[in-house]
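Appendix C. Worked example: DUF2624 domain-containing protein
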Amino acid sequence: MKLLQNVINHKINHITNDELLKYAKQYNISLTSQQATSIVQSVKGKNINIFDDTKRSRLVKDLAKVIGPKKAKEINQLFLQLIR
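Step 2, the predicted output written as structure tokens:
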């Protein structure tokens, strides 16, 4: 299980704009290219662990400031789908 968590966290921490837009489309989350760029910049190099509720919550709050609370909530739902 730990290996799978590491793979998912690595993918999130190194995601590109195009990959994020592809996943957003796959999970029916509408994102603009600018929003994707903002999200990628927010997670890049921060070694975020989305399996840690506190760290994920902090990330979602930071994203809410950048892309708005509604989109941040949708991104959190995507994270929750990935960790289940």
